[in-house]
Amino acid sequence: xxxxxxDGRVVLGVRPQDLSIADDxxxxxxxxxxxxxxxxxxxxxxxxxxxxxxxxxxxxxxPAVKAGEPIAIRVRGEAGHLFDTETGKRLN
Length: 92
What we know:
The protein has strands at 10-13, 19-21, 29-38, 42-48, 54-60, 70-75, 81-84. With 92 residues, it is mainly beta. It has a 5-stranded antiparallel sheet with strand order 2-6-3-4-5, with no helix packed on it. The protein has a two-stranded antiparallel ribbon with strand order 1-7.
């Protein structure tokens, strides 16, 4: 954690296109699919995480997912950015 963060709390910011569907155990976070918007070659998947946080992922249309299904998602590569919860500033 960056030494400039006073309370040690940070927020991870990720673009929906930088999330992917994962197999369990691949650095993934589990949640439940709430809504799926098919968009041709991709689908917009709204996921409810434990604790009530929500995430939106834009993923390929295959494999198709359905509302109510459990799902594992992960961040592709190093696409995420950390932000200080107190100041909102991006951390390097």
